[in-house]
Write a structure and sequence with these properties.
The protein is α/β, with parallel strands linked by helices and 359 residues long. It has 14 helices and 5 strands.
Length: 359
């Protein structure tokens, strides 16, 4: 900058005059500073992309997407296949049935080999792996190897649960007992404990809880509400669709609404859950179809085992067994969180009914 403000010197002129005779240089402020040089590759900050969720659901302002569940343990893979198979395409079902039926053989195959074995494509194999809860096929292969080792550990082979008209009553008991046991095991293996914990937290702090269910699911709804009532919480079960909706529109933030539907498509249950969702209540769906319509209005989804229906055993029997397990898990979790108030409330209810059980 000194060169800019120095007095001009002529080559033929006499030595420069004293500084006092020279005109004063202009103030530095008079010269505008050079404009900043823009970066070579300017970039515009982009908003963060929200994580994708397994199912597409309705959203409301301020709602936080649930964290992606961890991949299922190898022993839970078969249960996961049985639970999700109804929601898969036919080609994906072939892949899922192959890995569940022969985990050791499929674990030895590349993604191309499994695609050729099932008559599908590599993309279908990868999509099936992700639907089953694994980041990619490599993770599924590791789970298959673990499942194969689990099966070789000496576990007793499964018995058939199909009940024939001429089965002796002893066989009926054995088959039903085994099927109930398998249903409970499948439900426990596929249940997302993160979603379960979030639902428990919401129930423990709720101002009131509404539970919707019709038919066999209505019986489960009544079971949950009577459990919550016995530990001092305000809860109502609704099997009448009109009463369910008229109660749902009274809910607000701080309340909880629970829909129980094995098919995930029962309109009489979806309608009140949607009304509760739109009014800010925390919503929970207990369903055997994680892709069902009811999950669009559920903040938390608790998946039950897919029922194995037969001529003499309607799906409602198996679905009720798995739903009751989820209900018990919810109740025990809430009782743990509210133990200081739940324990005295349980004692009071026992004392109030004790005289009815005396002879």
């Amino acid at each position: 900058m000194k060169e800019i403000f120095a007095a001009p010197v002529s080559p033929t002129a006499s030595p420069p005059s004293p500084p006092t005779a020279s005109p004063a240089p202009p103030p530095a402020a008079a010269v505008p500073p050079p404009a900043p040089t823009p970066p070579a590759n300017p970039t515009t900050p982009r908003p963060a992309t929200p994580p994708r969720t397994p199912t597409t659901r309705k959203t409301r302002t301020g709602r936080t997407a649930p964290a992606a569940p961890a991949p299922p343990a190898p022993a839970a893979l078969a249960a996961k296949v049985r639970t999700l198979a109804p929601s898969m395409t036919r080609s994906m079902q072939r892949v899922a049935e192959a890995v569940a039926g022969d985990p050791a053989g499929c674990a030895a195959l590349t993604v191309t080999g499994l695609a050729e074995l099932t008559g599908t494509s590599e993309a279908t194999v990868v999509r099936t792996s992700r639907l089953l809860g694994y980041p990619g096929y490599r993770d599924l292969r590791l789970a298959l190897a673990g499942l194969a080792a689990h099966l070789l550990s000496g576990r007793a082979p499964a018995i058939t649960t199909d009940i024939a008209v001429d089965d002796p009553i002893a066989d009926v008991v054995a088959k039903l007992a085994y099927d109930e046991q398998q249903t409970l095991a499948d439900t426990a293996a596929a249940l997302d404990t993160g979603q379960l914990g979030a639902a428990v937290a919401a129930l423990a702090g709720a101002r009131r809880t509404d539970v919707y269910g019709v038919g066999a699911s209505g019986l489960v709804a009544q079971d949950l509400t009577q459990k919550l009532l016995r530990i001092g919480l305000i809860a109502q079960a609704h099997s009448d669709p009109h009463l369910a909706v008229t109660n749902a529109v009274q809910l607000r933030t701080g309340d909880v609404a629970i829909a129980i539907t094995h098919s995930g498509s029962t309109g009489d249950v979806i309608e009140p859950l949607r009304a509760a969702f739109e009014r800010g209540a925390t919503t929970v769906a207990i369903t055997g179809r994680p892709d069902g319509a009811v999950t669009q209005y559920a903040d938390h989804v608790l998946t039950t085992s897919t029922a194995r229906e037969s001529e003499l055993r309607p799906a409602a029997m198996s679905s009720r067994t798995s739903q009751l397990l989820v209900v018990d898990c919810l109740f025990v979790g809430v009782a743990q969180r509210t133990y200081e108030t739940a324990a005295p409330a349980l004692s009071a209810s026992y004392e109030a009914l004790a005289h009815r059980h005396r002879r």
